[in-house]
Description:
A: 17 strands; globular
Amino acid sequence: MTNTYITNATWALTGEKMDLRMGQAGDELATIFLNDIPLQGVNAISPAGEMQIPTGARVIDAEGQLFMPALFDMHASINLAGRSKRESIYRAGQAANHGGVWGMLVMPSSGFVFDNAATLDSFQDAVSQRSFATMIPAGCISENMQGEQQAPYNTLAARGISILSDAGKMPSNLLMLHRAMKYAAEMGLTFAIRGDVPVLTDKTYMHPSTTSYNLGLHGTPACAEEIGIETLIRLARDAGAKLHLQTVSTAEGVNIIRRAKASGMKGLTAEVALHHLLYTHENVGDYDTTFKTVPPLREQTDCDALLAGVKDGTIDCIVTDHTPCMPFAKKQDFVSAPQGMVALDNFLPCIYTHLISTGKLTWADVCRVCCTNPVHIANPYDQEEDVPMNAPLMLFAPEVHHKVTPDSLYCGTLNTPLLETVLSGAVTLPLY
Amino acid sequence: MNPRKDLITIDALSDEDIRTILDSTSAMKDIFTKSVKKVPALKGKSVLTLFYEPSTRTRSSFEVAANRLSADVTTFTVSTSSVVKGESVHDTIDTLMSMKMDYIIVRHKNSGIPAVIARHCKASVINAGDGSHAHPSQAFLDAFTIREKYGDVAGRRVVIIGDILHSRVARSTSTILRRLGAEVAYMGPSPLVPPTAHTGIPRFTNWNQIFDWKPDIIYLLRVQNERIDTPFFPAADYHQAFGVTEERLRRIDDLNLSIMHPGPVNRGVEICDDAMEYRNCLINNQVENGIAARMSILYHLTPQTQSHD
Amino acid sequence: MPTIIKDEIERALDAWVSHLLQSSAVKNGEPLAIVGIVSHGDVLARRLVQRLEQHNVKALYGAIDVTLYRDDLDLRGKRPALRSSHLPFSTDDFTLILTDDVLSTGRTARAALDVLWEYGRPARVELHCLVDRGGRQLPICPNYAAFNLTAAPGTSVKVHLQEIDGEENITY
């Protein structure tokens, strides 16, 4: 057996051409770093053309392709309503694989209520048998995500849970949350919550705007999210708990987080969903339920502020907020239709097409917010080895253009505005 | 007017569509003066009224309109419980499709439902009010009532008073009146007149400003407290602050202004008792014109239930 | 394109009025109304009423829009615009002269009869037209036609009247 060599691959961060020697079982693996990014599975690297390649070795010529670590998604819901859990897991894994995502934090959902050991065990079993991608569950904050009783955090932590979330639902009982944070802080658990004041956002369906007025849809006030963010920050600071703010959607929300970080608060991180960087309330048009999201799509100024937050480090991660919705459900009226988009399938091609090739983000930004930061937040240490979990390497061909068709989606549903659009870039090397 | 299958919003109509439907409304009204108040235009056609929200007035108005065009009218009773649990719009649409209806007149508390039904049905779908979104037949009868009273809608000034935020009437009626060249202004409790509602439309906060603006028509909206869980304003304030009180009625009389209201009226809230008897109170005209306007709408829509290619 | 010019129409109207003056209704002084089918028959009706007046014969004027009674509404893509009917009197015991510009299939005349019966029970109805172009699809025959043309099916016979079209002729 000999090593596999990858030649003439372009390092995404700098554009330098490199030759790589991939490790194989039994090799001594000292992690190699490039621009401080760990390269999993690589055990030698040199400028292109300088690698000694033994005759007969397996060589992949990666001319015109980029190499970089695969992405980690901090926020995915994978439940396919009405399908088996095994199918949900299988399809999400396949979709992730095609979108350049090697691992994801799976939110609890009606199909996967991670508030007990048995559910977690059966989930882990199914993942190990069925999934193409690493799936790390987020434990529930409250029993059955009802926001009333704390879930058994010790039991969950014993199953490897490091993040707690009620899937974007902010517990309305702040006393419960405050006590939960104090209790869980000692175990080093992170609370992943979306800032919200449920009483202000109940029965609201989109960003309050001329669009919402003309469609007769009640608006979700931005202040509800901002009050929620401020509340969560203060609770977490007081309790000494780590807090990860989910799917920030407003400019002022970014400002609040920026101020808190500047004040020296530790253990505070935040994420933005990819769709909040790309779309506004105007995309809802004439009741297009594809664009129904929670929190809602807002103004262009919010998109800009969120992007600025990504650039300056206020926002730590870009996530998919992947949410499969059955076509049947999305064909209902806007009020009745479920919220959410699927985004795992084309996560990296979409980021590349809309953010990198337009100059809004660099590869270094993407590596930070989609690889290193989320891995660090989701699972800082492999429980057994006590070493950071590293992303596997992937190759990405930026010049491949492809149209997104129903057949090209692996996730099991079609609720994405990318359908029938053309994206640039494809993940070419299987991750495993 | 180009063949049009559905009537969902005023915005979707061309200027020509609006004019044609209004023009035909007067011809429809002439039918009421005959001894036989019926024409055979829609003979053999089936009309379904599908009301998920209770409304005797609008529903009867549509039913009378359909009857006068000789259509067969069926009332689809939707029990509120089956709507709350389980039954999605799609299930209902499938049922309707198998009934082979030509026209479906739908009212629903969710904004956007008629559009969904229209997309999936060959029948002509008429929006009889969806959530806070649109109520186009009301807009037509309002525009026709103003045209009948003043000869033309263009150049008239109409102030719409009340819950602009939740009112589908405010949206549709202001749209059609502005399309026809009228000027519209709003007044109401501030939480109910959001800035997003009145781009390009003046907003007044008291009656003196209204009178200074020299309107022709005072259009009162119904205070719909039954729709609202948490009040937007203290109900006790409404009549004094925004209603047509007896004192304001005298002023309205002096200035010879008209009063309109989509009904049903809350006496003592939007309007004092005397105003109902006021000589320029057009509320009854609106009801009568409602039938003619709805006949004209039914007549001008063309279902795709039979093709003649 | 063959054309019947203004002067010929003028002479035809004179002849038409003479014919009306000979009718039993006029002779016996029975109530008479000329009811035109919009949008050209009503113009002819008005002219006939005026000309009869010059002969001291009083006839009431009426106009009806038969659109809502047509049997071909579903065959057209778009619905025709509607005009108001104008028949402000009970037609009971009247002799009604129904006038139209062009008589062809007879379907318009059939619809017009339906309309008339909803305004009362006339004593007698006659069908008069400016042009009978043939091509009947119903057992309907005019009592009077000012011009008889045999136009091939598919050709269009158009009556233009000063009041509506700004010119006066018949093309076919």
